[in-house]
């Protein structure tokens, strides 16, 4: 049950970070806040994929 809650939290945070990044106006230069937003989105997506893979592996065992 704890991992299910963790997946939901990671998914919500990932959706919020993508929404926050889409609000940033684009320009030719990447500022520090844009780099940080992209980094956080990648980290959250990686954690979400890890949780999903772990749950699939646990079902098969």
List the helices and strands and how they pair.
Elements: H1 2-23, H2 32-60
Description:
The chain has two helices and no strands. The chain has helices at 2-23, 32-60. Helix 1 (2-23) runs antiparallel to helix 2 (32-60).
Average pLDDT reading: 85
The SSE string, one letter per element, is: HH
Q: How far apart are the termini?
A: 17 Å
Report the helical percentage: over 70%
Question: Biggest β-sheet, characterized?
Answer: none
Given helix and strand content, the structural type is mainly alpha
- Give the overall form: elongated
Strand content: under 5%
* Parts with pLDDT < 50 across at least 5 consecutive residues: none
Number of helices: 2
Q: Please report the total strand number as a whole number.
A: 0
Q: Determine Rg (CA atoms, Å).
A: 15 Å
Short structural summary:
The chain has 61 residues and is mainly α. The protein is 84% helix and 0% strand.
Q: What brief labels describe this structure?
A:
61 residues, mainly alpha, 2 helices, elongated
